[in-house]
Amino acid sequence: MKLDSINKAVDPTDISEVEQQLNIFKQVYATSATGSADFIQATQQDNELTYSNVPFRLFLLIAYNLDHEITVHDTAKLIVAGARHEDLSTVLPLDPETKVAIRFQEARVKSGLTEKEIAAKSVELDEYKLIKAEYARIPLSISTWAELFKIIGTKITIDLF
Question: Which residue range(s) make up the domain with 119?
Answer without folding.
Answer: 96-151
